[in-house]
Amino acid sequence: MHTQVRCWFLPTVSGIMGPQTTLDGERVRVLETKLVDDESRGEPGTILDRVGEELLVQCGDRPIRVVRTERVSR
To answer: What pTM, to 2 d.p., does this model score?
Structure first.
C-alpha cells in the first residue's frame, strides 16, 4: 500500500487517480503514508489506532500510518 500511494497518481483507464478506500462511510483517496516498525497481527484493513486525522492501518504483512487523505468527489 505504501508504494502504491507514493507512485500511483496517473489516471487509469477507469479514471481513478490514486489508491482509494472507504473511511467513516465516505470514499477517500490516500495521499500520504508512512512505514511503521510494528509487528501487529490484525486483520488486513483493520484500523488499529487513530490519532487526530492519522490512522494506523493493518496491511498484509505489517501496518502503515495513513497520514493524509482527501474526500473523493462523486
So the answer is: 0.75
